[in-house]
């Protein structure tokens, strides 16, 4: 579904992504893990068209999207749930959700997706008219994911959904991702929380200072001695 080949990205003169290749197949949940500053968010930005690739290509559903503007990429079905959630705290939960449907003209599809989002997140359903700023961090993350669902994604990009959340809230958010996966949504999950990301995903790429240093089935990597030592706090 998504094929990234030999991607390099730089900010001004400093190259931060060095020849990264990755792929995601339909229905897969793939995680991208790595330390602070490794370049995970930069890869997501390149996929979403928020930053331009220096070299390399990104193809989605067989079509090259490397040079498309970000609105063209979103309307093609790649939707990002941004780091830090970026919900509108002074708008209601319902208004925030409906903002996700801004590219959708078909009212029936909007209604279906709205229903799906609030069924998935009952906490939002109970509080549709409440201001989004009154939600807890975990609930705001759920709202951000719900809003992304309103735009009918074919591929959902999640940037550190566990950031700033308690272990319990993190668990709830990850349980939601499992349900989305069962529903057939393809996802790329960027996480610093390596253990949870490996547990939930089918395959994982490990990024170090802008290069992929390991990749494989998550169930294999979670047992790997080097991965345990470097990312899982093991010995
Ligand atoms: P984090 O988990 O902290 O978000 P990350 O793995 O997502 O880290 P990036 O945010 O992609 O990493 O950053 C990769 C590198 O690029 C870092 O060295 C960072 O300082 C640098 N960088 C990020 N954004 C910019 C920018 N707008 N201008 C210059 N350098 C940047």
From TrEMBL:
| Transport in keyword set | yes
InterPro entries noted in UniProt: AAA+_ATPase, ABC_branched_ATPase_LivF/BraG, ABC_transporter-like_ATP-bd, ABC_transporter-like_CS, BCAA_Transport_ATP-bd_LivF, P-loop_NTPase
Cite the Gene3D superfamilies for this sequence: P-loop containing nucleotide triphosphate hydrolases
Q: Which keywords are on file for this protein?
A: Amino-acid transport, ATP-binding, Nucleotide-binding, Transport
Give me any GO biological process, just one: L-amino acid transport
Q: Does the keyword Cytoplasm apply?
A: no
Provide the ABC transporter domain boundaries.
2-234
Q: Which GO terms describe its molecular function?
A: ATP binding; ATP hydrolysis activity; branched-chain amino acid transmembrane transporter activity
Q: Name the family.
A: Belongs to the ABC transporter superfamily.
**Protein name from the UniProt record:** ABC transporter ATP-binding protein
